[in-house]
Hints:
seven-stranded parallel β-sheet; binds NADP nicotinamide-adenine-dinucleotide phosphate
Amino acid sequence: MRIxxxxxxxxxxxxxxxSLLNQGHDLTVLSRKPxxxxxxxxxxxxxWGSLAEWKPAISFDAVINLxxxxxxxxxxxxxxxxxxxxxxxxxxxxxxxxxxxxxQKPKVLLSGSAVGYYGDRGDSMxxxxxxxxxxxxxxxxxxxxxxxxxxxxxxVRVCILRTGLVLSNRGGLLxxxxxxxxxxxxxxxxxxxxxxxxxxxDDYVAIVTRILHEESFSGPYNMTTPxxxxxxxxxxxxxxxLHRPALFVAPAFLLKFGLGERAALLLEGQRVxxxxxxxxxxxxxxxxxxxxxxxxLRAS
Length: 300
Ligand SMILES: NC(=O)c1ccc[n+]([C@@H]2O[C@H](COP(=O)([O-])OP(=O)(O)OC[C@H]3O[C@@H](n4cnc5c(N)ncnc54)[C@H](OP(=O)(O)O)[C@@H]3O)[C@@H](O)[C@H]2O)c1
């Protein structure tokens, strides 16, 4: 397959590129720093610095759209919210305009989203049919998904990757937690009751591969394991796997004071279930958090 990826240089994108190259696909990665693409994604990958390079005569079989300004790294000022929005919603709009313009449309568009789509829903179990929440993250995901869905009217199969916390030993949230936990300074966040819906990066890549190839897949997919855990449980299991204690608490009021609105990413959660993946019998290689962490930390 000829595949165009946005966000191919990111945490998920790099692993996806490695796997897709191994499967023999032909990859083009859109990046703001095209000169870094071959080092990050593989020397066989073609790099584009702008979508202006997508001329109407160039065709792809699939487009995978994962680009986005990191949501947790900076304070949510109005400017930063604009950057978060533009890098997802506006970029996806641009992508769909190009799909409209090209002579031969891709067969499938896999476009990013996050479990933040559902907003803070306490202990409710959330399948793909639940409605979106109302906070900033939810509105961002809802708008991002809506724009991607426009490609359906062009005859493109559209699949939305409603992504949970992706566990990798190359960065992401696990990368941030590891240092304090390894130092014996493990902690839960606030009351620890907020849900964390997680997925091992190998399972994520396996699901993307299946969605690419199976025409029966369409619409939103919760990219999470069937076994979400509370934050307190996550901390307990991470500490157990590292053979360290986790005795501390990161108090909610301090996080709200230090992070402002962004503290919601840590203090709120969603108990998400991969209902549609389970219906088609997808077998998670790492369905239990302890197994996923054992594997990732052994390999790191
Ligand atoms: N990792 C997770 O746990 C998780 C959870 C839920 C949702 N997601 C979503 O899934 C997608 C991929 O996640 P990831 O962890 O791989 O993300 P990542 O490591 O932060 O990479 C995102 C990619 O997006 C591009 N990008 C960053 N800022 C941008 C901007 N301002 N404008 C345009 N492009 C920009 C970057 O590519 P260049 O620098 O090459 O341009 C980068 O490689 C993201 O959209 C993320 O929000 C991830």
